[in-house]
Amino acid sequence: MILPIVGYGHPVLRKVGENITEEHPDLKQTIADMYETMYNACGVGLAAPQIGKAIRLFLVDTTPFSDDEELEESAQNELKGFKRTFINAKIILEEGEIWSFNEGCLSIPDVREDVYRHERITVEYCEEDFVMKTEVFEGLIARVIQHEYDHIEGVLFTDKISSLKKRLIQKKLKNITEGKTFQDYRMRFVAKKGR
């Protein structure tokens, strides 16, 4: 089922997600709905707070990035095959160079900004089988994971930009909060005015 994506300004986007267990109600259905919702919105990642649930769950599928002709073929192949569900994730190490990339977010439509992140991360997490794993991720995959991980920590990519850039996008953010934005996917807003 395609769910509405929570828009900027909603309090759930600022909550630190709680760890969950295998017994979490309707977990398999929630994960399936999140994938369907993400694909419907043409996203490469989606976190549970974005569907209104303050739990430590997010998913990533970097396949759309594999179409970027500026990337080397090996990078395209790596991105094409990467699809993962992250439960109770914890980034235990960030390392390598800090690099900039233009990011957007399904909860903040029509806003894109350059964000600096580490090139390599080590993450402890469970997949749907709840077996704990520790893995190292690099490049665009690491970036998408860091972006989604921020969501379960109550952090948005707009928190990582300069105060000048924040001022420049303030009107857009206010419009999103008020539901004065149009996109091709369902959204839920804090306050809907003028519609």
UniProtKB/TrEMBL annotation:
Q: Which cofactor does it need?
A: Fe(2+)
How many cofactor units bind, and how? Binds 1 Fe(2+) ion.
Keywords from the UniProt entry = Hydrolase, Iron, Metal-binding, Protein biosynthesis
Q: Molecular function (GO) terms listed?
A: metal ion binding; peptide deformylase activity
Q: Which Gene3D superfamilies match?
A: Peptide deformylase
Q: Name one Pfam family in it.
A: Pep_deformylase
Q: InterPro entries, per this entry?
A: Peptide_deformylase (IPR023635), Peptide_deformylase_sf (IPR036821)
Q: Which EC class, in a word?
A: hydrolase
- What residues bind Fe cation, as annotated? 105, 147, 151
Q: What is its EC number?
A: 3.5.1.88
Q: Which residues form the signal peptide?
A: none
* Stretches of the chain forming a coiled coil according to its record: none
List, in alphabetical order, the GO biological process terms annotated in this UniProt record: translation
Q: Which reaction does it catalyse?
A: N-terminal N-formyl-L-methionyl-[peptide] + H2O = N-terminal L-methionyl-[peptide] + formate
Record-annotated active site: 148
Q: Which family does it belong to?
A: Belongs to the polypeptide deformylase family.
Which HAMAP family does this entry report, sorted A to Z?
A: Pep_deformylase (MF_00163)
- Protein purpose: Removes the formyl group from the N-terminal Met of newly synthesized proteins. Requires at least a dipeptide for an efficient rate of reaction. N-terminal L-methionine is a prerequisite for activity but the enzyme has broad specificity at other positions.
Q: What is this protein called?
A: Peptide deformylase
The coding gene here is def
